[in-house]
């Protein structure tokens, strides 16, 4: 993730912190004033300067508020360090802490690089039907992992170690699902600059398990590539993810290009910020298995 989590102290302006955390500048200043969640320094000319720890605290607070926690309580939890469970150095300890604590299993595993422990946690989790794994375990675990990263409780390398292993597992589900001949084709991916793949990848796997010929294009695809790669008539629908608010402009560009090239092609959006493109693409909701079921039903309903 961010180089700034490496421990080096970097000064960030309000604008930079807003870009890094997705918190509007006014809200940043209000959280500081009302809840004291951070105390930024000042530049020589009097502007606020935030260090890396402040950015992590603000990102953790935002994650809590987005999850429904009232801001005052979120600030208290961030200040008291109770946003996630305890972090230990040993992989066994991490696994135990992850398994029992509110920090979650994946966050616990991201404090070390125990391949066997991670493998056995993923084996156990993925033993359930994938439709249950995604919404009941994987997405909540990823949210907790992000919260732990934002609070500085897991190192960047550990977070990459875990998310890469998750990506391999979900890719395996996508690859092994059988698609019948003549199945409707749906193209799934992320717009330019967007790299949070796990939601859309999981969604593509869910579609394949429902017999859809889901073509997964991964992340960071610019608008012109969407137009070239989505050959109009053979494609029944397109799905783009919008995991961060910052992903909305690029996603809008891709959707607008697709709408211009293929009028009438059904366009859908998923991920946390899907509503930011609701005027261009149908928002699929936040429960992946339900969204996959409903999209497949709409494909079969289309003459
Ligand atoms: C893993 C991860 C990464 C990995 C991604 C690896 C990969 N192969 O995907 C890497 C290391 C690349 C990464 C990078 C960054 N990350 Co990151 N990352 C995460 C983490 C832990 C999980 C992401 C994920 O897969 N989420 C899946 C779910 C949980 O996503 P969701 O959007 O909330 O979706 C919900 C629903 O809409 C639904 N859903 C999800 N997808 C879809 C799709 C469809 C079709 C449908 C119907 C539904 C659906 O499921 C969810 C549960 O209901 C999140 C934590 C989090 N809360 O998401 C942080 C997080 C998203 N990252 C964050 C940040 C800040 C970054 C970086 C900017 C860090 C940096 N400075 O470099 C970069 C940006 C990269 C980019 N340009 O896109 C922040 C974003 C804050 C914000 N602004 O919104 C988060 C929230 C962490 C945090 N708590 O602060 N990250």
UniProtKB/TrEMBL annotation:
Residues 72-99 are annotated as: Disordered. Pfam families: B12-binding_2, MerR_1. Residues 183-303 form the B12-binding domain. Signal peptide: none annotated. Residues 11-80 form the HTH merR-type domain. CDD domains: HTH_MlrA-CarA (cd01104). This is MerR family transcriptional regulator. It comes from Nocardioides taihuensis.
């Amino acid at each position: 993730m961010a180089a700034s989590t490496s421990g080096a102290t970097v000064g960030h302006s309000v604008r930079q912190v807003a870009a890094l955390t997705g918190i509007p500048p006014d809200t940043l200043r209000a959280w500081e004033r009302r809840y004291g969640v951070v105390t930024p320094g000042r530049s020589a000319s009097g502007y606020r300067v935030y260090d890396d720890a402040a950015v992590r605290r603000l990102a953790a607070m935002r994650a809590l508020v987005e999850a429904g926690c009232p801001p005052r309580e979120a600030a208290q939890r961030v200040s008291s360090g109770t946003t996630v469970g305890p972090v230990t150095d040993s992989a066994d300890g991490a696994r135990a802490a992850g398994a029992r604590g509110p920090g979650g299993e994946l966050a616990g595993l991201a404090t070390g690089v125990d391949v066997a422990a991670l493998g056995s946690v993923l084996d156990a989790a993925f033993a359930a039907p994938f439709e249950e794994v995604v919404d009941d375990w994987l997405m909540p675990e990823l949210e907790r992992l992000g919260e732990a990263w934002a609070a500085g409780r897991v190192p960047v390398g550990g977070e990459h170690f875990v998310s890469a292993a998750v990506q391999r597992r979900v890719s395996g589900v996508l690859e092994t699902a059988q698609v019948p001949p003549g199945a409707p084709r749906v193209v799934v991916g992320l717009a330019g600059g967007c790299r949070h793949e796990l939601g859309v990848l999981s969604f593509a796997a869910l579609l394949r398990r429902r017999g859809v010929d889901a073509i997964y294009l991964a992340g960071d695809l610019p608008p012109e590539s969407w137009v070239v790669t989505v050959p109009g008539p053979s494609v029944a629908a397109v799905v783009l993810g919008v995991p961060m608010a910052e992903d909305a402009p690029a996603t809008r560009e891709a959707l607008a290009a697709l709408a211009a090239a293929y009028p009438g092609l059904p366009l859908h959006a998923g991920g946390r910020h899907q509503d930011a493109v609701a005027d261009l693409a149908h928002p699929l909701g936040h429960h992946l298995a339900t969204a996959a079921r409903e999209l497949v039903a709409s494909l079969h309903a289309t003459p």
